Amino acid sequence: MEKILTILVAALPVGELRAAIPLAIFRWGISPFEAYILAVIGNFLPVIPLLWFLEHATHRVAAWHPFFHKTFHWVFERTRRKHGKKFETSKALALFIFVAIPLPLTGAWTGAVASYLFGIPFWKAVLAIGCGVLVSGLLVLASAGLFL
To answer: Which of 113, 110, 114, 103 is closest to 136 using CA atoms?
Structure first.
């Protein structure tokens, strides 16, 4: 049961790895290696469905009503215009770094939303977020004084 809870906590958009790994180790007595693996799996589980959902849901809603079409167009264009230059040369690398830093409001969920807003291609986003999750988990272990 504790292993399933570790995966579920890591899959949540709030705590992600930062909550799942310490809970698994200190509360549920799972080894650091196993906690890392379970938390990484749990944190990555929602990434592909979330990226797919964002792509399809915004297109469907935009096609449904002109107000939403104008609003989404304005938000995406404005975001890319204001912040796109910062990430233009290496969007995937910036996304990886963003996800890899285990701070509040950085992680797989926010990375998926950011990749969609900045127009990072689907598979590049999946790879960058996946690698970021791996590094973030290691940093959480290291910050807790634990090693694999």
So the answer is: 103
Per-residue pLDDT of 47-73, as tens digits, reads 999 999 887 776 666 666 677 666 766
CA distance 145 to 4: 24
Question: Would you give the distance in Å from CA 82 to the centre of its chain?
Answer: 22
Residue 76 CA: distances (Å) to CA of 26, 94, 117, 118 = 42, 18, 6, 8
Determine which of 11-25, 48-62, 66-80, 107-121 has the lowest per-residue pLDDT on average: 66-80
Quote the CA–CA distance of 148 and 88 in Å, as a whole number.
35
Identify the three-state secondary structure at position 142: helix
